[in-house]
């Protein structure tokens, strides 16, 4: 899978972000995208082939694997990474709209098209809310699908066509558990960064409005 588009998107977002936003971009790029591509993807690459049950009944391993892993961890992480990065396109598109509007009118309409104020501030806040909401949704989804953030060594399966309760073994559970905790931890860190940036921008805008009101009243 090519991640060039996501990399370019993150690079573009970095231009129009606050200091906290740039930290978020660095975390997503270094601790999520690179870790996913360099290590995590290979660990889960053959997860179905390495899932073994102590019986060779045709179809038994397949139904047991599908029951305990209805969606592949790695594919769900890939979807999460794409989805939480996509709201940032709103900011990029809004800046592009400002730039095109200036070209169309052939005059300077904004002090800086990439400055977070006015309508762009609203777009930025919406993107932060969407990113935070998507992060939380995926964490809850992970927890519900896999009955917690854990990788058991052994699972017991009694689903047909298995003739009785069989033991099924998951390969490299410790290694997978380490990466699971790491990726969940970085997801929580991104939520904290998004909420911090959201609070910072709202506080900054509130102070700005308050000072303007005070200045207007003093005249």
UniProtKB/TrEMBL annotation:
<feature type="transmembrane region" description="Helical">
    <location>
        <begin position="77"/>
        <end position="97"/>
    </location>
</feature>
<dbReference type="GO" id="GO:0005922">
    <property type="term" value="C:connexin complex"/>
</dbReference>
<protein>
    <recommendedName>
        <fullName>Gap junction protein</fullName>
    </recommendedName>
</protein>
<keyword id="KW-1133">Transmembrane helix</keyword>
<keyword id="KW-0812">Transmembrane</keyword>
<keyword id="KW-0965">Cell junction</keyword>
<comment type="subunit">
    <text>A connexon is composed of a hexamer of connexins.</text>
</comment>
<dbReference type="GO" id="GO:0007267">
    <property type="term" value="P:cell-cell signaling"/>
</dbReference>
<dbReference type="InterPro" id="IPR019570">
    <property type="entry name" value="Connexin_CCC"/>
</dbReference>
<dbReference type="InterPro" id="IPR038359">
    <property type="entry name" value="Connexin_N_sf"/>
</dbReference>
<feature type="transmembrane region" description="Helical">
    <location>
        <begin position="178"/>
        <end position="203"/>
    </location>
</feature>
<feature type="domain" description="Connexin cysteine-rich">
    <location>
        <begin position="134"/>
        <end position="201"/>
    </location>
</feature>
<dbReference type="InterPro" id="IPR017990">
    <property type="entry name" value="Connexin_CS"/>
</dbReference>
<keyword id="KW-1003">Cell membrane</keyword>
<dbReference type="Pfam" id="PF00029">
    <property type="entry name" value="Connexin"/>
</dbReference>
<feature type="domain" description="Connexin N-terminal">
    <location>
        <begin position="42"/>
        <end position="75"/>
    </location>
</feature>
<dbReference type="InterPro" id="IPR013092">
    <property type="entry name" value="Connexin_N"/>
</dbReference>
<dbReference type="GO" id="GO:0005243">
    <property type="term" value="F:gap junction channel activity"/>
</dbReference>
<comment type="function">
    <text>One gap junction consists of a cluster of closely packed pairs of transmembrane channels, the connexons, through which materials of low MW diffuse from one cell to a neighboring cell.</text>
</comment>
<keyword id="KW-0303">Gap junction</keyword>
<feature type="transmembrane region" description="Helical">
    <location>
        <begin position="118"/>
        <end position="143"/>
    </location>
</feature>
<dbReference type="InterPro" id="IPR000500">
    <property type="entry name" value="Connexin"/>
</dbReference>
<feature type="transmembrane region" description="Helical">
    <location>
        <begin position="21"/>
        <end position="39"/>
    </location>
</feature>
<comment type="similarity">
    <text>Belongs to the connexin family.</text>
</comment>
<keyword id="KW-0472">Membrane</keyword>
């Amino acid at each position: 899978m090519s991640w060039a588009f996501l990399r370019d998107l993150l690079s573009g977002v970095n231009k129009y972000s606050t200091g906290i936003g740039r930290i978020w971009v660095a975390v997503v790029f270094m601790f999520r995208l690179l870790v996913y591509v360099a290590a995590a993807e290979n660990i889960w690459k053959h997860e179905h082939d390495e899932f073994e049950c102590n019986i060779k009944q045709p179809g038994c391993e397949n139904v047991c694997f599908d029951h305990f892993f209805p969606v592949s961890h790695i594919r769900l992480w890939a979807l999460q990474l794409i989805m939480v990065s996509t709201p940032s396109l709103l900011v990029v598109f809004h800046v592009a709209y400002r730039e095109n509007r200036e070209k169309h009118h052939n005059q300077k309409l904004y002090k800086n098209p990439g400055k977070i104020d006015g309508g762009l501030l609203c777009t930025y806040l919406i993107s932060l809310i969407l990113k935070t909401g998507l992060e939380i949704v995926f964490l809850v989804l992970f927890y519900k699908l896999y009955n917690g953030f854990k990788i058991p060594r052994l699972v017991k399966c009694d689903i047909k066509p298995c003739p009785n309760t069989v033991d099924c073994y998951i390969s490299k559970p410790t290694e997978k558990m380490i990466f699971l905790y790491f990726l969940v931890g970085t997801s929580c860190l991104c939520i904290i960064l998004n909420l911090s940036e959201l609070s910072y921008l709202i506080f900054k805008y509130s102070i700005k409005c308050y000072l303007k009101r005070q200045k207007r009243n003093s005249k």
